[in-house]
Amino acid sequence: MQLSAITVGVFALLVTTRAVFSFLAIRNVQYADQLVAKHREWLGSTLGIDDSDELQDYHRLTTAIGELESWIGLAAVVLVIYGGGLSWVVDLLAATGLSVVLQGVVFFVGLAVAAQLASIPFRLVSTFGVEEVFGFNNQTPTLFVRDTLVQLALSVGFVAILGGAVLAAIERLPTLWPAAAWGLFVVVSLVMQILYPRVIAPLFNDFEPVADGELRKAIEDVFERAGFATSDIYTMDASRRSTQLNAYFIGFGRTKRVVLFDTLVEKMEQAELQSVLAHELAHWKEAHIWKQFAAGAVQMAVVVAALGWLVDFEPLYTAFGVPASATYAGLLLAALIVTPLLQFTAPLSNALSLAHEREADAYAAEVMGSQPMIDALGRLAGENLANPFPHPWYARFHYSHPPIPERIRLLSDRTDGDATDSAPQPPATGDD
């Protein structure tokens, strides 16, 4: 492969993107370290973090592992594509005599398997190294292997079906395939809202409806206050893998459900747990799922339009030494170009999620009062050793939830009078 303006441009785009986000990650660590040092008292009183050094160490290590994996992954991609590996694979697949669609299915399945295998060393270090040292890991080696095999099987299945469908659309609808791919995305996204909670998630965890008892009464109380009929609330055995806390809302219609981690139920006070539940109900009440779905559909329309133009751009194939008939290779190259553009426009999609999270916090405060929600946020951040002080620019690109101090400040500023005046005020992080 000879260097050209296209190959140099793609290389520059990939490396520059990675460098920019690595710079943001480094600044994020530095920024957090500065503010942690200034606000140790607030961290202890509000988040229950008595050892702020542990918080900093955890943040540094997880960031370092993530950055190392990203750079090694980029190096592998560059080595394969610029070292002639892509053209060699295309020639090898063409020699099989399979149709272009089947060649593409084999190609993308191979990429999925390679990506899964390449992630294993980093997952091992993260799970049995970092998470173990900081007391989060409960996963056994046997469970790790099982999870890996299930994830691999799911990846192969989805890639084969979706990749084959898109490649078939390219072959049969050469001018309209982006519209067909967009329609496929919309349908799959809707189907996943049904399949994930009922088929996929149970492959990894057990989900139990909340039984009659004190917890059930507390949940029914929240639903009554919010004006909802009690619906599907489940606890998930998250403690099989980690001690960290979380909850989430998923689905629509009869498939909607709120899922509470068993660690959340175990470690939170009743009022805090009720506030978290009220927060999740807000996503349902305010139709956040549908708004996010619509925004994702608009974003995907732009993405497939860009992919459509690039896949039909023959100089791209020529530059990387692959035949224009190998549309699956063109799709990969197009995806490499479009992905950085998605990364740089992440603040646009994050802005909607941030607004929804603020709305959900406000609704939880309206239903349960501000202080229980403040306490819940503090416990979540403290138990999970979440970085409370992200760099503003890093947060714009990576955070779908507002930073914890901001969320607590907004709740404290509410005029419902339920937050005590003597409570330590959250620090103002500001811009850098």
UniProtKB/TrEMBL annotation:
Keywords: Hydrolase, Membrane, Metal-binding, Metalloprotease, Protease, Transmembrane, Transmembrane helix, Zinc. The chain crosses the membrane at residues 6-26, 70-90, 96-118, 149-170, 176-196, 293-311, 317-342. Its cofactor is Zn(2+). The active site is at E280, D361 (proton donor). Residues 52-205 form the CAAX prenyl protease 1 N-terminal domain. Residues 412-432 are annotated as: Disordered. One of its GO terms (molecular function) is metal ion binding. Binds 1 zinc ion per subunit. One of its GO terms (biological process) is CAAX-box protein processing. The keyword Transferase does not apply. Residues 212-414 form the Peptidase M48 domain. Zn(2+) binds at H279, H283, E357. Belongs to the peptidase M48 family. This is M48 family peptidase.
